[in-house]
Amino acid sequence: MAKRIDVSDLDIYYGNFKAVEGVNLSIEPRSITALIGPSGCGKSTFLRSLNRMHEVIPGARVEGKVVIEGQDLYGSDVDPVDVRRQIGMVFQRPNPFPTMSIYDNVAAGLRLNAKKTSKSDMDDLVERSLKGANLWTEVKDRLSRPGSGLSGGQQQRLCIARAIAVQPEVLLMDEPCSALDPISTLAVEDLMMELKEQFTIVIVTHNMQQAARVSETTGFFNLNGVGQPGRLIEYNPTEKIFSNPDEKATEDYISGRFG
Fold first, then answer.
1. Cβ density class 179-209: b for 16+ within 10 Å, e for less
2. Whole-prediction pTM
3. Which residue ranges form the domains of the chain, and what is each CATH number?
């Protein structure tokens, strides 16, 4: 079940450094939300705060709230591991487990979650996840071969299959196409459009054409200056952001005047 995300007054720190300040937004279920902005403005930090992945960096903390369907992800009784199970993540560079087969890459999440699953159920789930990632027909005859032997675009779709195998409610993608060629990029974009029927998807991208192509809503992040925290400058329907933004800074960024 795709879930709605509500973020209120979110500040993100690394030690004493405030990396992101004052984010307020709501992310609708079964949609794609794109986050754009210049390098170093806090997009990826914000994305990682949505499933508490930024906490793997020592000294990271947040103030404010991230609420998914009524549950505060930063509540004192919430286990970050459960959050990451609920909210899957796909990274910039394809990162299949190099020593594992294609099959075991997809099954890894379930095994890590210590869910007892019969061989036939696992077979079904691996097939369903690979089909969900539009990869099944390309790999079904070589499931026992290493995932690292696939092309870059296939590896990224394998990582998406691994993420959706645990049936998360939200899928975060941190520049999932930046290391891919145009044809592989198109395949991943087509896949995103299909997956939004089941998941809430949030994507960070430097490719503004990609944001315009795949997302319903776009958030523009920016910095006021070096050493300043990143801020969400504008958050609107994608069509409005790219045709008639409310903020001059958004227009300047999209038209290539800076960034």
1. bbeeebbebbbebbeebbebbbbbbbbbbbe
2. 0.92
3. 5-96+169-254 (3.40.50.300)
